[in-house]
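Example record for the data management plan.
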Amino acid sequence: MKEKLVLYTGQKYKCKQCGECCKVRGVPLTLFDIERIETIADKDFAIYDISRKTFAIEKRIWDNGCVFLDDINCSIHKDKPLICRLFPLGIFYKPLSESDEPRKLKDGEEVYIYVDLSCPGIGDEGEPFDMEKILELCQRIKIEMAYTLNGQE
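Corresponding structural encoding:
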């Protein structure tokens, strides 16, 4: 599944539980993600991604899927990483197109929220995302990732 990102403008979403979001993508982890998952995990799951200079979820060798993907279901769904909670949305600090309008986090920083149209759950079914909750999650991701990256220096 190749990403097809467009600015989020209220597109509807209903998860189809296909498991495609858990394959191919790299999932960066915060130290808080690691601590939370360690309490329930029965396997090694975190690797250090040298190119991104952060921790990431380990992938299965045979299909590049997340080590927590059981068939099409996430075995750690209630404790999954923050980035996974955001999908099929993505947060960027720079626009992909000059005409894209930013949204503001509580700290005043501008972010750009994009939706991945390659996700089968985007379409006529479901509901639009609650943007207030999404921006709160983006703020949490920003804080936790900053803490994680600063702790590695």
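Summary line stored alongside the record: Helices lie at 31-38, 82-86, 131-150.
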